[in-house]
Amino acid sequence: MNTSGSRELKRLFPSIQMPIVYAQHRPSTLQKVRMRDYQAMCDAVLRGDAQAADEAGMAHVQNVRSAIIHRLSSGAN
Description:
mainly alpha
Protein backbone atom coordinates (compact mmCIF):
# COMPACT_ATOMS: atom_id res chain seq x y z
CA MET A 1 0.00 0.00 0.00
CA ASN A 2 1.45 3.37 -1.01
CA THR A 3 0.67 5.99 1.60
CA SER A 4 3.29 8.44 0.35
CA GLY A 5 5.21 8.14 3.60
CA SER A 6 2.20 9.13 5.68
CA ARG A 7 2.64 7.62 9.13
CA GLU A 8 -0.96 8.45 10.04
CA LEU A 9 -2.42 6.60 7.06
CA LYS A 10 -0.14 3.62 7.71
CA ARG A 11 -1.38 3.60 11.32
CA LEU A 12 -5.06 4.09 10.47
CA PHE A 13 -5.60 1.58 7.68
CA PRO A 14 -4.86 -1.59 9.64
CA SER A 15 -6.48 -0.44 12.87
CA ILE A 16 -9.77 1.08 11.75
CA GLN A 17 -12.53 -1.32 10.91
CA MET A 18 -14.35 1.19 8.70
CA PRO A 19 -16.48 -1.43 6.90
CA ILE A 20 -18.03 -2.23 10.28
CA VAL A 21 -18.70 1.46 10.93
CA TYR A 22 -20.20 1.89 7.46
CA ALA A 23 -22.40 -1.18 7.89
CA GLN A 24 -23.74 0.07 11.22
CA HIS A 25 -24.21 3.70 10.22
CA ARG A 26 -25.52 4.58 6.79
CA PRO A 27 -26.49 8.25 6.76
CA SER A 28 -26.98 9.45 3.21
CA THR A 29 -24.35 12.13 3.74
CA LEU A 30 -21.71 9.55 4.72
CA GLN A 31 -21.15 8.47 1.10
CA LYS A 32 -20.48 12.08 0.10
CA VAL A 33 -18.13 12.54 3.05
CA ARG A 34 -16.27 9.36 2.14
CA MET A 35 -15.82 10.25 -1.51
CA ARG A 36 -14.71 13.81 -0.73
CA ASP A 37 -12.26 12.64 1.92
CA TYR A 38 -10.92 9.74 -0.12
CA GLN A 39 -10.25 12.17 -2.97
CA ALA A 40 -8.28 14.45 -0.64
CA MET A 41 -6.24 11.48 0.64
CA CYS A 42 -5.63 10.22 -2.88
CA ASP A 43 -4.57 13.63 -4.15
CA ALA A 44 -2.10 14.03 -1.27
CA VAL A 45 -0.61 10.58 -1.83
CA LEU A 46 -0.26 11.17 -5.56
CA ARG A 47 1.51 14.46 -4.85
CA GLY A 48 3.84 12.67 -2.45
CA ASP A 49 2.73 15.00 0.33
CA ALA A 50 2.89 12.93 3.53
CA GLN A 51 1.77 15.78 5.77
CA ALA A 52 -1.32 16.49 3.67
CA ALA A 53 -2.08 12.75 3.54
CA ASP A 54 -1.82 12.59 7.35
CA GLU A 55 -4.11 15.58 7.71
CA ALA A 56 -6.62 14.19 5.21
CA GLY A 57 -6.68 10.83 7.00
CA MET A 58 -7.23 12.46 10.38
CA ALA A 59 -9.88 14.77 8.94
CA HIS A 60 -11.68 11.77 7.45
CA VAL A 61 -11.98 10.07 10.83
CA GLN A 62 -13.36 13.28 12.33
CA ASN A 63 -15.75 13.83 9.42
CA VAL A 64 -17.17 10.31 9.67
CA ARG A 65 -17.51 10.65 13.43
CA SER A 66 -19.29 14.00 13.02
CA ALA A 67 -21.71 12.59 10.42
CA ILE A 68 -22.58 9.68 12.70
CA ILE A 69 -22.97 11.88 15.78
CA HIS A 70 -25.19 14.28 13.83
CA ARG A 71 -27.39 11.45 12.67
CA LEU A 72 -27.67 9.95 16.16
CA SER A 73 -28.41 13.31 17.77
CA SER A 74 -31.12 14.03 15.21
CA GLY A 75 -32.89 10.80 16.15
CA ALA A 76 -32.56 9.28 12.68
CA ASN A 77 -32.05 5.54 12.47
